[in-house]
Amino acid sequence: MAPTLCALLCFMGLCWCRLTWAQEDASRRPSLTAEPGLVIPRGQPVSFRCQGPPGTKLYRLKEELRQQFMDLPAAEGRGLFSVETAPNTAGNYSCQYKIQTVWSEPSNTLQLVVTGLYEPPSLSALPGPNVTAGQNVTLRCQTELWFSSAALAKDGETVGFGSALHTGPGSRTDFLLAAVSDAQQGRYRCYSFHGAASAEWSSPSAPVELRLTETFSESKERTLDAAALDYTVGNLVRLILAGLVLVLLGILLIEHWQSSRRHKQQLREPCLSSLSRPAPEVEVKEEMKEGRKERRKK
């Protein structure tokens, strides 16, 4: 009901409309936001803003687990609450606004997580931080202390939770990234904490930068190309070896032919020398002839 109409009716003695108007406005739920975020290191402030309709006189910020609340007049802070983070400030928050004497319904709930309350875990990538698109990679969050759960954050935003496996005094949580794509590249950290819904976390681990080196199809094509190249090189080596063997056999055949030829010549030379030498009977006859000629001359 419009305020002008309510004022007219109140002047006529029907002031109940003012309360009805306040109740109608208070039926709208406020909105609650947090800056700079909801995962805040211990000791740093966080700002909660509760947004209500015009006419709001009072805002209330409430921590649900401990039933603690803070009231702030709308004229002073316009629904902006500043909270110093500490172990006792971690938890779920909602807000309300008040118009006249009527409180609104609670807003949406935000969980404030305070980090830096325990020693940091270690984070590693298996098989490594440089992976091929389309393949699987496991991010392992490990700590030497006993924790029941772990959280995984990418570029400052929480992207997953997991239960811990206990290895002796320590604990380990594996986060599987299946069929890694370009959207999953980034800087990852992990946190350890007690209880599935706890808002009190450890300090963050050292970052792990996940990078894609190539796509799975490119890797497969490269493997096939490498196999084809190896096959071609192998064939070329075989051809060269076969050529060398043929050349060697040719050299051996030529050497054998020349050796046989020299051997035949050596066998033929004694026969020729024996044929060119005069027979002994001819030599005797010639000597007898020469002797006769000399006797005649005398």
Automatic annotation (TrEMBL):
Chief location of this protein within or outside the cell: membrane
Localization per record: Cell membrane
UniProt biased composition (Basic and acidic residues): 280-298
Signal peptide: 1-22
Transmembrane segments: 236-254
UniProt xrefs under Pfam families: Ig_2
Membrane topology: Single-pass membrane protein
Annotated InterPro entries: Ig-like_dom_sf, Ig-like_fold, Ig-like_Receptors_ImmuneReg
Ranges where the record places region Disordered: 277-298
UniProt keywords, alphabetically: Cell membrane, Disulfide bond, Glycoprotein, Immunoglobulin domain, Membrane, Repeat, Signal, Transmembrane, Transmembrane helix
GO cellular component: a single term: plasma membrane
Gene3D superfamilies in the record: Immunoglobulins
Stated name of the protein: Uncharacterized protein
Species annotation: Monodelphis domestica (Gray short-tailed opossum)
The organism's taxonomic lineage, starting at the top: Eukaryota, Metazoa, Chordata, Craniata, Vertebrata
